[in-house]
C-alpha cells in the first residue's frame, strides 16, 4: 500500500490526533520532525497552501489538515473503525468533530494572548466545555464519545487531556474548574488511561517548557 | 432511505442552498421550510439546540446540522450521482479545499460587517483566498471535482452567486475576472448547470437584503467609534 510518513512537531496536539489514529489501527509510519522556524522543502512541497503540520504522506501522496487526515486513514485502513458505520450516527460524530476542532482553537488563543483577548478566549473555551458536558451524546453513559472504543470525536478532543492542562499552568488561567464537569472529567480519565493514548503522549513538563517558550516569543512579537 | 426528508433553510443563505443543490442533483424529494432567523421556530431550536442555525436536514425525524456534515450524510445515504470521488486520496483533496473555504470564508463575513482598517484587512484576506483557489484548486478542470459538479463546487457555490452581490453592497471589488480567469470560467460553468440554474436566489431581492444588512452593520460599527 505504500509507506506512510508523518510530518509534525513533537508537542503539537494536531499531530497527536494522527499518531493516535495510526497507532490505534496498528499502521506503521515514519515520523519526520519538522522545524517550523526553518521549514523543510518536503513540508513546503507537501502543504504549499498552509505550510503547516501535521502532513501525512502515503505512497508519495500528501494529505494536510488533521481532521482530513483522520478521515483518510479511516477510509484507507478500515480496521478498528473510528467512525460509526450507521450514516446518521456518523453524521452526529462528524458534527462533534467539527465542533471540537473549531471551538478548541479558543484554548490555543488562551495560550497565545493576554488581557482582554485572553479573557475572551477563556470564556469561549468554557462555553465549549459547557456545551460538550451538557449535549454531547453518550458522554457519561459510555466510556468514550465513540462508545466502548476510542473514536474520531475522542481524538479531536484529545487536546483537553494534556494541552489544556499545560495551557492552564503556563498562563495561570483556569479553564476547567474541578468538579464542574463530572462527565468530561470521567472521559478525560478514561482517555488518558487508554494504553495507546498513555503511551503516545509527550511528557507534561516537556510540553510545558515548549509552550512557555512559544507564548513568550508570541507575546514579545506583539 | 425513502422516509421523509425535511430541510429547514433560509432563502438568502448560501449554506441553505448547498443542501438544496445536493438534494436536487441527486433527485431526492424533500419538504422545505423557510425559517425566520429573527424569530426562530421551536422546530429549529429543537433540531439544532447547539448552534440554533440553518440549514438543518431532518431525515425520518432525525436532525443533522452543519451544511457540510449534511452534505456528507446525503452523499452516504443516497449514493446516486456521486458528489465525491471514489479514490480516498482524491476525497481527501476535495475535503481539504472544502475546509479551506470554510475556514477562510469568515473573512468575507468580516468585510461585510466592518469598516475602516478591520475591513481593509479582511478584504485583503478575502482576495488572497480567491487567488489561492485560482492558482491551486482548479488545476485545469471544469469543476473543482472534475468534469462534474461535486461537494467542493457546492461548498464554493456562494462565489458563483452571493459574492458579486456582496461586492455591490459593500462597494468593493474582490474577484477581478481578468486576473482570475479560471475562477471566472468556473463561475460560468457552475451557474449554467441545469440544476443550479433553477435553484438560485433572486438577485434583486438578495441585493436589497444585503444593502439593508450592510447599512445596519455600518451603523453599528460607526456608533461604536462614536
Count of individual helical segments of chain B: 11
Q: How much of the polypeptide of chain A forms β-strand, as a percent range?
A: 5-15%
- Rg result of chain A: 17 Å
Assign an overall shape of chain B: globular
Number of helices of chain A: 11
Helix and strand run of chain B = EHEHEEHHHHHHHHH
Mean pLDDT of chain B: 95
Stretches of chain A where pLDDT is under 50 for at least 5 consecutive residues are none
Give the strand tally of chain B.
4
Order of helices and strands of chain A: EHEHEEHHHHHHHHH
Mean pLDDT of chain A: 96
Short description:
With 222 residues, chain A is of the alpha+beta class.
Write the layout of secondary structure elements.
The complex is a heterodimer of chains A (222) and B (226).
Chain A: E1 4-8, H1 13-24, E2 30-33, H2 41-46, E3 55-58, E4 61-64, H3 66-76, H4 87-103, H5 105-112, H6 115-135, H7 152-156, H8 163-171, H9 182-193, H10 195-199, H11 204-221
Parallel strand pairs in A: 1-2
Antiparallel strand pairs in A: 1-3, 3-4
Helix pairs in contact in A: 1-3, 5-6, 5-8, 8-11
Chain B: E1 5-9, H1 14-25, E2 31-34, H2 42-47, E3 56-59, E4 62-65, H3 67-77, H4 88-104, H5 106-113, H6 116-137, H7 151-155, H8 157-170, H9 181-192, H10 194-197, H11 203-225
Parallel strand pairs in B: 1-2
Antiparallel strand pairs in B: 1-3, 3-4
Helix pairs in contact in B: 1-3, 5-6, 8-9, 8-11
Describe the structure.
The complex is a heterodimer of chains A (about 220) and B (about 230). Chain A has about 220 residues and is α+β, with helices and mostly antiparallel strands. The relative contact order of chain A is 0.12. Chain A contains eleven helices and four strands, in the order E-H-E-H-E-E-H-H-H-H-H-H-H-H-H. Chain B is built from eleven helices and four strands. A four-stranded mixed β-sheet of chain B has the order 2-1-3-4, with helices on one face. Chain B is globular, with a radius of gyration of 18 Å. The interface of A and B includes residues 75 and 88 of A.
Amino acid at each position: 500500500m505504500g509507506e506512510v510518513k508523518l510530518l509534525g512537531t513533537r508537542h503539537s496536539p494536531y499531530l497527536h490526533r494522527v499518531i493516535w489514529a495510526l497507532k490505534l489501527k496498528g499502521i506503521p509510519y515514519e515520523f519526520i520532525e519538522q522545524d517550523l522556524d526553518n521549514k523543510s522543502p518536503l513540508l513546503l512541497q507537501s502543504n504549499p497552501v498552509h505550510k503547516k503540520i501535521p502532513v501525512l504522506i502515503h505512497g508519495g501522496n500528501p494529505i494536510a489538515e488533521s481532521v482530513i487526515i483522520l478521515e483518510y486513514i479511516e477510509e484507507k485502513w478500515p480496521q478498528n473503525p473510528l467512525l460509526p458505520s450507521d450514516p446518521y450516527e456518523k453524521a452526529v460524530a462528524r458534527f462533534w468533530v467539527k465542533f471540537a476542532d473549531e471551538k478548541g482553537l479558543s484554548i490555543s488563543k488562551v495560550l497565545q494572548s493576554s488581557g482582554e483577548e485572553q479573557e475572551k478566549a477563556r470564556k469561549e473555551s468554557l462555553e465549549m466545555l459547557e456545551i460538550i458536558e451538557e449535549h454531547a451524546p453518550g458522554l457519561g453513559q459510555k466510556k468514550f464519545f465513540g462508545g466502548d472504543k476510542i473514536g474520531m470525536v475522542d481524538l479531536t478532543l484529545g487536546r483537553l487531556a494534556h494541552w489544556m492542562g499545560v495551557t492552564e499552568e503556563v498562563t495561570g488561567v483556569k479553564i476547567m474548574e474541578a468538579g464542574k464537569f463530572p462527565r468530561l472529567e470521567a472521559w478525560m480519565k478514561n482517555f488518558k488511561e487508554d494504553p495507546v493514548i498513555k503511551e503516545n503522549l509527550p511528557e507534561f513538563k516537556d510540553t510545558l517548557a515548549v509552550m512557555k517558550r512559544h507564548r513568550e516569543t508570541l507575546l514579545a512579537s506583539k | 432511505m425513502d422516509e421523509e426528508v425535511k430541510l429547514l433553510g433560509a432563502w438568502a443563505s448560501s449554506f441553505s442552498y448547498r443542501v438544496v443543490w445536493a438534494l436536487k442533483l441527486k433527485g431526492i424529494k424533500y419538504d422545505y421550510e423557510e425559517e425566520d432567523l429573527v424569530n426562530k421556530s421551536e422546530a429549529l431550536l429543537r433540531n439544532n439546540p447547539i448552534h440554533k442555525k440553518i440549514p438543518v436536514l431532518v431525515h425520518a425525524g432525525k436532525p443533522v446540522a452543519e451544511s457540510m456534515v449534511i452534505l456528507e450524510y446525503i452523499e452516504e445515504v443516497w449514493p446516486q450521482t456521486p458528489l465525491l470521488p471514489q479514490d480516498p486520496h482524491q476525497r481527501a483533496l476535495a475535503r481539504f479545499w472544502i475546509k479551506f473555504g470554510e475556514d477562510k470564508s469568515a473573512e468575507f463575513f468580516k468585510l461585510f460587517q466592518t469598516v475602516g482598517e478591520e475591513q481593509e484587512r479582511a478584504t485583503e484576506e478575502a482576495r488572497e483566498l480567491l487567488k489561492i483557489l485560482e492558482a491551486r484548486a482548479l488545476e485545469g478542470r471544469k469543476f473543482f471535482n472534475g468534469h462534474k459538479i461535486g461537494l467542493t463546487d457546492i461548498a464554493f457555490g456562494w462565489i458563483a452567486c452571493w459574492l458579486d452581490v456582496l461586492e455591490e453592497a459593500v462597494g468593493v471589488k474582490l474577484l477581478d475576472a481578468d486576473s482570475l480567469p479560471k475562477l471566472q470560467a468556473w463561475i460560468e460553468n457552475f451557474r449554467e448547470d441545469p440544476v443550479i440554474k433553477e435553484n438560485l436566489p433572486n438577485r434583486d431581492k438578495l441585493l436589497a437584503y444585503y444593502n439593508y444588512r450592510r447599512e445596519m452593520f455600518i451603523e453599528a460599527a460607526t456608533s461604536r467609534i462614536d
